[in-house]
Amino acid sequence: MADAEFSPTDLELMDLDDHDNSTWASRNPSKAIIPPRNNYKKLTDAQKITASVRLAQTREKQLQLTEDLGEFKITQARLLQEIAEKHGKSLDYVKGRATAASTFKTPRALNLHNAKLHFLSLEINNGFEEGERKNLMEIQHRLKDDPDMCELDKREEDRLLQILQDHKNVQKAGARANHRAAAADYEKTVGRIHEEMGKLHERTGATLFLLGAHDHVDDTLPPTFVDAGNTEAFFLEHIDMTANEFTRKFNSWCESRRNGSKAQGSTLRLLQIECRCLISEGLNRILKRKNVMMAYDQYEAKIMVEHKVQLRGWPENVAWGTPHNLTTIAAVRKLRDALVSGACAWVKLSSQEHEAIVKKVEQAPPKKRKTRSDKGTKKITSDTSKTTDGPRKRARKAKKATSSQVPPIRSPSVVPSSDEEDDNA
């Protein structure tokens, strides 16, 4: 059977790094950058010969490993059959008990051994290019023979764990260094999400869609629309446009909101609303409620004392209070970035912290109500020359004449006399 022809994708044909424009990493200098991988290296003739010999040895070892595993499986099947016959159980039952393992596993947590390996790899491989660095097996042997790594105090162990945690955080949420890495990450992640959306739809019947677009005009990420459950009919019936047209409009909106095309007042107002919503949503999320209102003037008494939570990480040089009191875009954007990144977030107070804030609020003098500016002055009427001590008394209405009043209704049982009939006539 002939091999299928390889057709490179648009992403592979596009020379992303030749464009003279800004990248996501350059526009976010405070964000950690994931170092790019340079897996390619030009080898000399001697290195090529060495690499081919190493490759042949690796293949030979792989074949030997396959043969050993085959012999082990034969022995394992024979032993499992003997155990099943010995205890009167079926072979499938014994296999299930012998190879039982959970399908769902928790993520690997930090441990001191991995922290030491990471620290040694940074020290040993610092300054070496790809292909010249020590592999994991060599670093593990170095760790066993290093007496200094076996006699660490508590402070040094915590420092190594923190270095490994920082490295993991950069790998998870760091900025890609160039357009090629960002586009490859985008394409790979969206494809994986689309696959999981399809599986979720088949398992549960959920209907979902995902919109993707670049956040800056210099970015090379293509607009993307993926769905599970045929959601394109929703756009035609309720929005009166196709899903592709809606995606293009969404992409245009993402570009226009970052290139400064909007007025300063509109941008400031939108940032203020976003900060207010982020603070309110975070408060209700940590309290697991939906109707808790943020109180800036009585923050300690109404929020910290009553709900035992605190908003920590408020940016420096940004005045505390409602975001609508901030009048500069730089200050509001600084607050928004802190709320989005998690540097400013709601946390629960410990019992000691709560007791301290309760004592502080109880010892604080009560806040006096603001006095009116016109207190103690007489009110002035329209005629500035005349003043009055108070409102005039309401004039009493004069009684109307009795002739204009409607006569009372008589009962049907009363029979009018002849004199009354003459008077009415």
Could you give a quick summary of the protein structure above?
The chain is built from 14 helices and six strands. It is mainly α and 425 residues long. Mean pLDDT is 81; it is low at 1-6 and 261-265.
Largest sheet: 2 strands, parallel
Structure class: mainly alpha
Please work out how many helical segments DSSP would assign: 14
pLDDT < 50 runs, ≥5 residues: 1-6, 261-265
The geometry reads as: elongated
Indicate the mean pLDDT.
81
- Number of distinct beta strands: 6
- What is the H-and-E element order? HEHHHHHEHEEHHHHEHEHH
Q: What gap, in angstroms, lies between the N and C termini?
A: 124 Å
Give the proportion of residues in helices: 40-55%
As laid out across the biggest beta sheet, the strand order is 1-2
Please give the radius of gyration in angstroms.
39 Å
| Share of residues in strands | 5-15%
Which short descriptors sum up this protein?
425 residues; mainly alpha; 14 helices; elongated; two-stranded antiparallel sheet; single chain; two-stranded parallel ribbon
